[in-house]
């Protein structure tokens, strides 16, 4: 009877990303991927994705927000927003009412069910963020948020 011989396990050589590690953008992207994956799992029990959660939060925090304002705040194209708004409205989490002074615009508001889901999801997202940033003290967290905010500010052209 012939015995199976096990092949020695070989590990792939470690990829050298030293050049890339010099760039802030590389670190931001790698970090975002980790945070996004964990946030996806955090929001899953609520039937929300990052975009639907973001839209829900902005609508709760800004009752009567128009779809155009929501699209701008989220940094997405208005046609892409319609899918998100339709999903939230289809789940009875928000209402979309015509603005009396502009028949083309809709005012977005949360329903009681939307507000309840917002409260539950917000609590989970806060716990997610606290867990993800557990190794960063409050002062460093504040500085990090400020640095990221500064990056988003428009650059002056000389």
Mean pLDDT: 91
The count of strands amounts to 3
Low-confidence stretches: none
Rg, rounded, reads 22 Å
Percent of residues in beta strands: 5-15%
Kindly state the percentage of residues in helix. 55-70%
CA-to-CA gap between the ends?
80 Å
Can you list the strand order of the major beta sheet?
1-3-2
Number of helices: 6
How does the major sheet shape up?
A: 3 strands, antiparallel
From the spread of the alpha carbons, the general shape counts as extended
Derived from helix and strand composition plus strand pairing, the structural class reads mainly alpha
Report the order of strands and helices. HHEHHEEHH
In short:
This protein is mainly alpha-helical. It contains six helices and three strands.
Describe the structure.
- This protein is mainly alpha-helical and 158 residues long.
- Helix content is 56%, strand content 11%.
- The chain has six helices and three strands.
- The protein has helices spanning 24-43, 50-61, 67-74, 78-90, 112-132, 138-152, and strands at residues 65-66, 94-99, 102-110.
- Strands 1-3-2 form a three-stranded antiparallel sheet.
- β2 (94-99) and β3 form a beta hairpin.
- α2 (50-61) crosses α5 and α3 (67-74) packs across α4 (78-90).
- It is extended and about 75 Å long.
- 14% of the residues are buried.
Give structural attributes:
three-stranded antiparallel sheet, 3 strands, mainly alpha, 56% helix, 6 helices, 158 residues, single chain
Q: How would the blueprint of this fold be written?
A:
Elements: H1 24-43, H2 50-61, E1 65-66, H3 67-74, H4 78-90, E2 94-99, E3 102-110, H5 112-132, H6 138-152
Antiparallel strand pairs: 1-3, 2-3
């Amino acid at each position: 009877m012939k015995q199976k011989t096990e092949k020695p396990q070989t590990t792939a050589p470690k990829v050298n990303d030293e050049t890339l590690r010099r760039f802030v953008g590389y670190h931001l992207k790698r970090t975002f991927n980790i945070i996004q994956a964990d946030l996806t799992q955090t929001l899953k029990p609520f039937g929300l994705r990052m975009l639907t959660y973001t839209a829900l939060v902005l609508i709760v925090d800004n009752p009567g927000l128009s779809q155009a304002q929501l699209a701008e705040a989220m940094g997405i194209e208005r046609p892409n927003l319609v899918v998100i708004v339709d999903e939230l409205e289809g789940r009875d989490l928000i209402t979309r009412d015509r603005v009396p002074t502009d028949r083309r615009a809709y005012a977005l508001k949360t329903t009681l069910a939307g507000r309840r889901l917002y409260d539950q999801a917000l609590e989970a997202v806060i716990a997610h963020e606290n867990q993800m940033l557990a190794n960063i003290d409050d002062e460093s967290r504040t500085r990090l948020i400020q640095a990221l905010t500064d990056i988003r500010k428009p650059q002056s052209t000389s």
